[in-house]
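re: that chain from earlier
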Amino acid sequence: MNVKPLSDRVLILPNPAEEKTAGGLIIPDTAKEKPLAGKVVAVGPGTSEIKMEVAVGDQVLYGKYAGQEINVEGVDYLIMKQQDILAII
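^ sequence. v structure.
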């Protein structure tokens, strides 16, 4: 990984979207919801005012419209400020 977030930003690999419902129905691509959880793959150093509370490897929940989508080496990631993360799970 050659991406290093700056300041209080975090790079997240979103969990894959659900393929089936609990009842076994297959969800078409057009109806899949954007995942709201993912794994932290890189963390910035923080700032003098903001201490980084998440670490590489943490599973996190984030808001539906949080972050900016980026593609690195064919893989889609989200980069967002730490304040956009709702919880560590």
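The two ends are 24 Å apart (CA to CA).
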